[in-house]
């Protein structure tokens, strides 16, 4: 039984699958944001299984969960064919606000290292509607092959979403 949150009685599931993904500017039309929540963990970018942004200042990716969830973890799969270092310095942020595209929400984790072709789990005991991955640096590119957000619906808050 899932018990990280007081009163929780359900097992967490990948709630990102029912969400809506978006990202900062990308001219790669085949590598749109929703590629990172399509259940396809293929780490070869050229198989159209990853999302990517252009080189920009503070590139970001976000999933709107369309409701409030008690989030227990965020699982990220990194690119495997090249460029795995692009994820270094990425922050996972969770919250209910869209200020600065959601990048001002509370930080759950920072990815300080992550080898190619690897999936890591970041424990995030937080409540929120938006899950962002942002690299707060200049002239960077953000590539994500899969993002899974595990949590349970917060029934007492679902009708009061921001």
UniProtKB/TrEMBL annotation:
Recorded family membership: Belongs to the fucolectin family.
Pfam families given in the database record: F5_F8_type_C_2 (PF22633)
Keywords: Calcium, Disulfide bond, Lectin, Metal-binding, Secreted
Locations listed in the record: Secreted
GO biological processes: regulation of cellular defense response; regulation of complement activation, lectin pathway
Top-level taxon: Eukaryota
Record domain Fucolectin tachylectin-4 pentraxin-1: where: 12-158
Quaternary structure (record): Homotrimer.
Stated name of the protein: Fucolectin tachylectin-4 pentraxin-1 domain-containing protein
GO molecular function: fucose binding; metal ion binding
InterPro entries xrefs: BG_Antigen-Binding_Lectin (IPR051941), FTP1 (IPR006585), Galactose-bd-like_sf (IPR008979)
A GO cellular component annotation in the UniProt record: extracellular region
Keyword Calcium: yes
SMART domains tied to this protein: FTP
Protein's UniProt keywords contain Disulfide bond: yes
Protein source organism: Pygocentrus nattereri (Red-bellied piranha)
Biological role stated in the UniProt entry: Acts as a defensive agent. Recognizes blood group fucosylated oligosaccharides including A, B, H and Lewis B-type antigens. Does not recognize Lewis A antigen and has low affinity for monovalent haptens.
């Amino acid at each position: 039984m899932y018990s990280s949150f007081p009163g929780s009685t359900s097992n967490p599931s990948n709630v990102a699958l029912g969400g809506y993904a978006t990202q900062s500017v990308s001219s790669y039309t085949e590598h749109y944001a929703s590629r990172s929540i399509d259940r396809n963990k293929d780490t070869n970018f050229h198989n159209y299984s990853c999302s990517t942004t252009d080189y920009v200042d503070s590139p970001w990716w976000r999933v709107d969960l369309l409701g409030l969830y008690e989030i227990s973890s965020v699982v990220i799969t990194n690119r495997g064919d090249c460029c795995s270092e692009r994820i270094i310095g990425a922050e996972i942020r969770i919250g209910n606000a869209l200020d600065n595209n959601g990048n001002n929400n509370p930080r759950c984790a920072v990815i300080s290292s992550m080898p190619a072709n690897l999936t890591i789990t970041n424990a995030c005991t937080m409540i929120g509607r938006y899950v962002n991955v942002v690299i707060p640096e200049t002239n960077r590119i953000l590539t994500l092959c899969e993002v899974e957000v595990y949590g349970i619906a917060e029934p007492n808050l679902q009708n009061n979403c921001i």
